[in-house]
Amino acid sequence: MKHRYTWKIGMQCTTNRQLEVDRPVYEGAILIDLLTGDRYGVQKMYEAGEHEKFVANMPNAAIQTFLMEKLGDEDLKEIRRKAGYVPDANCQPFGNLVFFPYSSVAA
Predict the structure, then answer these.
(1) Does residue 101 have a cis bond before it (omega within 30 degrees)?
(2) pTM for this structure?
């Protein structure tokens, strides 16, 4: 079963970013971008209002995250190794994420 969310980062009023994962996201989770090493803390989960979604067919379930300190190079290498992730020319930010600690999800 896929879980879909409208994903807001920081103080966004409206977003076009969505997250689709195989297991539910929860408040307090940390999402790690395997390409960039950016970390996002899930601060709040709620029902998105129509004004918050760029298009009406975006998920009603929403997550509000905040950008945390970026992972260091060694930590990022270790997480990539554990996730079996090898970046290539086709990779983009938000394309491959893991829940902390080290549980792979597809964005």
Answers:
(1) yes
(2) 0.84
